[in-house]
Amino acid sequence: MAQDLSEKELLKMEVEQLKKEVKNTRVPISKTGKEIKDYMEAQAGNDPLLKGVPEDKNPFKEKGSCAIS
């Protein structure tokens, strides 16, 4: 797609993207990192990857065994 556009069009697209990005509020990573850590710790009890899935709710458990005789 970018190959079909002229250099002027590419620069115009880049300027438009930069105009969108300059409107974003920036927050230091020291603040957001702590917020993410706190959120992860608060949600850890609901995370099936950390606590596991109960057998009765596990859609991937074996339905039965298969025996070849």
TrEMBL record:
SMART domains registered for this protein in UniProt: G_gamma, GGL
Keyword DNA-binding listed: no
GO terms of molecular function: G-protein beta-subunit binding; GTPase activity
Biased composition (Basic and acidic residues): 53-69
Location of the protein in the cell: Cell membrane
One GO BP: G protein-coupled receptor signaling pathway
GO cellular component: heterotrimeric G-protein complex
Membrane topology: Lipid-anchor
Record-stated family: Belongs to the G protein gamma family.
Name of the protein this chain belongs to: Guanine nucleotide-binding protein subunit gamma
